[in-house]
Amino acid sequence: MSCAQIQIRDVCKDYLLGKTRIHALRHVSMDINKGDFLVIAGPSGSGKTTLLNCIGLIDRPDSGSIFLENKKVCNGAFSPATGLRRDRLGYIFQTFNLIPVLTVYENVEYPLILQRIDKARRRKMVLDVLEKTGLSSRTKHKPRELSGGQRQRVSIARAVVKNPGIVLADEPTANLDSETGREILELMQNLNEEGITFVFSSHDPVIIDKGRRVVRLHDGCIQNIEERGAY
Amino acid sequence: MTFLKLGFRSLFRQKRRTTLTLIVITFGVGCLLLTMGHTAFVEWGLRESTIHSETGHLQIFSTGHMEQEEELILEYGLSNYEEIAAALDSMLDVQLVQSRTNLMGLISNGEKSVAFVGQAVEPEKEKQLRMMFFSTGSSFDSLIASQHTYECAVLGTGLARSLNVRPGDWVTLMTNTVDGALNAVDVLVADTVKSGSPEMDKRLVRIPMGTAGILLNSSKVEKLLVTLDDTEKTEAMYEKITDMASTRNWGITVRRWYQETLYYHKVRQFFSQITGFISVILLIIVCFSTSNTIMMSIVERTREIGTLLSVGTSKYQTVKMFCFEGLFLGLIGGMMSMLFGYVLSHGINALNITLPPPPGLNHAYELSMRTEAGFYLPVFAVTAAVTMISSIIPAVRVTRMKIVDALGHI
User: Fewer Cβ atoms within 10 A, N terminus or C terminus of chain B?
Assistant: First the structure.
């Protein structure tokens, strides 16, 4: 029995681009431990997003296995995957992906509604996380009324509000200026210090430097795994 | 609640498209309400005019008349009709009780004889009966004026033309008496009338009950007509009179107006078929329009749907969200349609438009629409249901999408 929170074993994933088969992931195996602040690094097309999608159960590998807390999850039916996404995994998207018709408060509250948490508790949880992410004064704003950095903060708040254990972020700073990107990274580091596992992809050397572990991908293969121990 | 909120708010993202869809629903369903309103008016008019000219709300025959074939006229007529009429006249809700006898025979001007279809009536009461609905009963004025002076008759315009007679001329009516003997009575042509049907006008003769008594040599009548103050009370009054008849041993059978009006049922069925056909077409248009709106909405929101699925929204919840969106579209569209239909109906009614006579009738009729909760509310409910159901197919398509594809959608 492994103590890793996520175990990835021999995962392969191919895409067809017209008639050409693209090997996005080739026999990838790695562990993600609880409390990790792990960066998946690599150039464009190296398979970072595909790996992240497979870990996050929004894509399925062609072969291989993914274990979440020692339970095999990658070949499950849709419904258990929905449950895991709802309860155990949080997502941060490069393009924020907020629901435009909902306010900041409602966007953050949404995952808790899916979990059927009662209203009073929900309110406390949402206000707590909005406080942590510096959005207390923006609760009633719609996403279109926010800056890019603020939108990404909402996205982070939405991902962590349910205490998911693992948060996956696909190039979370790619659409932000360097200063805002640095602030977002600091916010993620602070939340990581509270025990949330962060797995994110990036090809920005400044961001990669902040990772406590760095997995470098090249042409769908793991090139190396760097253990750093500190941000 | 969240999915209700999401569905409702999503309607207002693309205001122009939602407005266009609402216009289609409003116009389509509104026109359906106008059609149904006019059909309801025609049905109501036909019902009330039939009741207030032909059948009354209830008709009373002797039991024998309904059960056996008469060999001679009035063989099974009502002999105790005065007693029955007096008892019914005193009942609450009864407005009028009158006797009638239908008869057939020959009418002659001395040179030419033709067959007639006759109605023996009580002219004052017939006038009253028509006044209740048509606000005129002048076709009986001449009979009322002449009946106590002469034996008289009112002829259909076609029959008068055929015999070349005018008011003031004399004609002879011939028919069999209750005993089977041939009898004839000279009658003054008091007036000529249009019955509404050109075919009927070629045969119609109306005579007072007294003249019929002489002609048929009988004091019996064929039936009594009972007219109530409200058609809705027909069933209740039917029960009361039936009970009364059995208690008092009258030996009668009571028939309700709709049991005596084959024509009304055929017309009603005809209109129901037309309205049904139009309804189906309009609802299909509404269905496609709504489906199209939702489909466009899905294509536009593909990435957002991917996000919702990726944070743990289930297939069922996603379908529910789009169904709510369709439902809201239907509820808003349905309300707008009812308002549109109501305002336009009253507007058209205020214009007092008359339409040319339809085939088989010789008088124009009013273009009028009724606005009744009886069909407005069901149409509203059906609209909401149709728009909701028409959202299901596009919504189910969403759930077939791979999340990763949805997230990558541009």
Answer: C
Residue B104 counted as domain residue? yes
Residue A22 C-alpha from the chain's centroid: 24
What are the tokens at A73? 């999850």
Mark yes or no for CB contact A97/B307 under 8 Å.
yes
In a domain, A1, yes or no: no
Domain that holds residue A88: 34-60+76-227
* B279-300 per-residue burial string, b: 16 or more CB within 10 A, e: under 16: beebbebbbebbbbbbbebbee
Indicate whether this model's pTM tops 0.80. Answer: no
pLDDT tens-digit profile of A184-217? 888 889 889 988 999 999 888 888 888 899 999 9
Rounded Cα distance, B69 and B150, in Å = 34
Binding-site residues on chain A for chain B (CB distance < 8 A):
53, 56, 58-59, 78-79, 82-83, 85-87, 91, 93, 95, 97-102, 106, 110-111, 113-115, 158
pLDDT in tens, B265-318: 888 888 889 888 988 888 888 788 778 877 887 788 888 888 988 888 988 888
Of B169, B190, B221, which closes a domain?
Answer: B221
pLDDT digits (tens, 9 = 90+) for B319-333: 888 889 889 989 999
Give me the number of domains chain B comprises: 2
d(CA A220, CA A39): 15
- ipTM reported for the complex surpasses 0.90: no
Mutation site, B6, B18, B311, B403, interface A, largest A CB count within 10 A: B311
